[in-house]
């Protein structure tokens, strides 16, 4: 881990006002999208500026930013969404999504009868793949990308759908391990909530995306390929995200430093949902299963 991000006392978590003082200690930022660059309604301009300035820093090798998202869609679809929010392309080099990894998982199982559970907006995840599609009663694999109506439904509404699959041992491929995501001032349930319920029911689940190591391996390989395959030491990599369960736990599992953005899905727990300043969060952090190396209210330079 880069020493510049360390707190003043061992065991403490550093609280940052911005990343300017620690940025030179890293060559690569693996940055979450939803909750960091935007909240599902509006872009966070300061975050884009911070990443743009990081990429402009001088150094022995180019500074890179790879966006790592649990969006259940290909990276190209996320890029189009970011363009719509007005997030400048100067803020990042490329995008790796859980949707990209899900496509690989499906391609590896092309002969298995595959069924989709999720909204039509996620159908691009199947584009260009030669798969064996099946209905809910004959499928051996189900790709879950989200709830059909995430504005009104919860994972519990799907128990009746999941029960026969669990009884048959159908494998669920979870294209978005997030339990919830921000949409403006609300938290909206994601595919990960359905997958968690399915596991509780005894059903087998394969996860694509954070916090699982393969998505970090893919992101690191993608970043290295931008510079001719030159290896990037993990102590020069920083993960930025707003979720302990995915972003911070995933960074820990991969052996890289992590920065938690407080004004994301944990904002209400931390008392910053209404724009209050980030106060003493030591007790909250102690209660978490995984700890970040540093915390910032919003990503900024």
Oligomer: single chain
C-alpha Rg (nearest Å) = 19 Å
Q: What global shape is seen? A: globular
The beta-strand count equals: 14
First-residue to last-residue Cα separation: 20 Å
Percent strand equals: 15-25%
Tally of individual domains: 2
Largest sheet: 7 strands, parallel
From the coordinates shown, what is the CATH architecture of the largest domain?
A: 3-Layer(aba) Sandwich
Class inferred from helices and paired strands: alpha/beta
Order of helices and strands: EEHEHEHEEEHEEEHEHEHEHHE
Mean pLDDT: 93
CATH level 3 topology of the largest domain: Rossmann fold
> What ranges have pLDDT less than 50 throughout 5 or more consecutive residues?
6-10
Order of adjacent strands in the largest pleated sheet: 1-14-13-12-2-3-4
User: What's the CATH class of the largest domain, please?
Assistant: Alpha Beta
